[in-house]
Amino acid sequence: MENPPDQTESKEMMLQPRITRPKGGLLTMPFIIANEGFEKVASYGLLQNMILYLMSDYGLGLVKGQNVLFMWVAATNFMPLVGAFLSDSYLGRFLTISIASLSSFLGMMVLWLAAMLPQVKPSPCVASTVTKCSSTAATSSQLALLYFAFALISIGSGGIRPCSLAFGADQLDNKENPKNERVLESFFGWYYASSSVAVLIAFTVIVYIQDHLGWRIGFGVPAILMLLAGILFVLASPLYVKRNATKSLFTGLAQVAVAAYVNRKLMLPGQNDSYGCYYHLNDSELKAPSDKLRFLNKACVTSNQEEDIGADGLALNPWRLCTTDQVEELKALVKVIPVWSTGIMMSINVSQNSFQLLQANSMDRRLSDHSTFKIPPGSFGMFTIIALIAWVVLYDRAILPLASKIRGKPVRINVKIRMGLGLFISFLAMAVSATVEHYRRRTAISQGLANNATATVNISAMWLVPQYVLHGLAEALTGIGQTEFFYTEFPKSMSSIAAALFGLGMAVANILASVILNVVKNSSKKGGESWIEDNINKGHYDYYYWVLAILSFVNVIYYIVCSWSYGPTMDQLRNDKANGVRGEEHEEAVKLN
């Protein structure tokens, strides 16, 4: 007896394989970018006006408050290295980002509660003199609660920032796509730009709320945004490509250093027998290490294969014998350190936002003489972000397409050229900052405001815009350039470490910025006053900026040396190889004709 037609068709439909949508791709980008975007809106929105909060509500002086912020920002930028380590080695990127989002939210909640509850904060200072406010100084327990909130936010940033970039690249990275490099380059630029839009919102909307509605609402809004960011990210879990965590990367790097020292007396194998004497895994594409930093090659030399390698093909003692891949990972890290260090000076220059905020606060912030609206002093950082976004859009949508059309082939500006140009622009930014501050201070003194730091100097705050724009261009060139440089130069197993290195540079920069600030303050004291004073009109911030400008110029020369000694990048080597193949094909065609 035959089955009815409808039953037969239903059985055939059940037997057909179910088409499942591949994971990853552009569909996941809104959730990943939104998570980091909300995190940046929250954290940068808190940071921008924080010096005013510490001075007014916690009774801290300018230098002490700025040192607290330097250390907080340093911790925030150092934690991505820890987050990258945990992500790559143990937790995986998805779980790391999820836990970090919870930590950021809890930190912002603690900060909001400190603003809401009068018992956990010093009594309000209603007087304008420091002597009368000294009695309301924060106690150790009150400061401990504040620092605990900062710590939770730093831990959250440490998990989100390095992993989001690499996690997003995981969704798009497809080796079979012939335009994979261009896709990743475009992703890095647009990811950085979208993050910058989030910072722009923080510098405008969040800062405006804090200035006009107070700290309670100003701290509560970032906490709500962080909660929303975490929920959106977790809800999209089924859509993601989730790469499993590998073994401890740092342990592997340490094993290479120890093995190279232990095997220091071994001879490196000759070229003819190199494939038989270097230890590598069966599925590894790297059969022999490179010739650079050759002393590390001894870490993967097999002196006796029967004693060194087990039946499963793994090293019996990984502290005496490492794989060629491990050796190349450490080489890649060591090789980029000089280039990485050149970005520290630019980050020091960018970290001077508290002093620029005081400058803007003392100037006429109206858009015109007939306008009543004043730009909040903490919002001037938006000009940095606008310049950064404008460059990314112009570079990706106008400059490269136009150059490619003119030359008749795809054109890309070498990443090392972009980084060097950004460092030079950072030097120009500090020179402009020093010049503008000299003019502002001279005008304030001529108007009889030397002893009144809170009075408005009759000079437009728009004079500060050029230096902010230059800082934005410097970050667009060097910041994006370094991120792309690390990601392309490192093996894929180190992708999160690559993303964390730029943040680590900012951490080191904030620590050095604190050192430079204290050195300049202590060494410039004359008659009881120094270049760095709470009263910006009595200090000489222009001299301080010139110190940073001179250091920035020296850093440009240092970068040129580091760039030359580094040699060609991976992109340059691939392009040279491709051009060589095309040249050989052309020669063969000529011979045939």
Automatic annotation (TrEMBL):
<feature type="transmembrane region" description="Helical">
    <location>
        <begin position="415"/>
        <end position="436"/>
    </location>
</feature>
<feature type="transmembrane region" description="Helical">
    <location>
        <begin position="375"/>
        <end position="395"/>
    </location>
</feature>
<keyword id="KW-0812">Transmembrane</keyword>
<protein>
    <recommendedName>
        <fullName>Major facilitator superfamily (MFS) profile domain-containing protein</fullName>
    </recommendedName>
</protein>
<feature type="transmembrane region" description="Helical">
    <location>
        <begin position="543"/>
        <end position="567"/>
    </location>
</feature>
<dbReference type="Pfam" id="PF00854">
    <property type="entry name" value="PTR2"/>
</dbReference>
<feature type="transmembrane region" description="Helical">
    <location>
        <begin position="215"/>
        <end position="241"/>
    </location>
</feature>
<dbReference type="InterPro" id="IPR000109">
    <property type="entry name" value="POT_fam"/>
</dbReference>
<feature type="transmembrane region" description="Helical">
    <location>
        <begin position="497"/>
        <end position="520"/>
    </location>
</feature>
<feature type="transmembrane region" description="Helical">
    <location>
        <begin position="94"/>
        <end position="114"/>
    </location>
</feature>
<keyword id="KW-1133">Transmembrane helix</keyword>
<feature type="transmembrane region" description="Helical">
    <location>
        <begin position="188"/>
        <end position="209"/>
    </location>
</feature>
<feature type="transmembrane region" description="Helical">
    <location>
        <begin position="69"/>
        <end position="87"/>
    </location>
</feature>
<feature type="transmembrane region" description="Helical">
    <location>
        <begin position="144"/>
        <end position="167"/>
    </location>
</feature>
<comment type="similarity">
    <text>Belongs to the major facilitator superfamily. Proton-dependent oligopeptide transporter (POT/PTR) (TC 2.A.17) family.</text>
</comment>
<dbReference type="InterPro" id="IPR036259">
    <property type="entry name" value="MFS_trans_sf"/>
</dbReference>
<keyword id="KW-0472">Membrane</keyword>
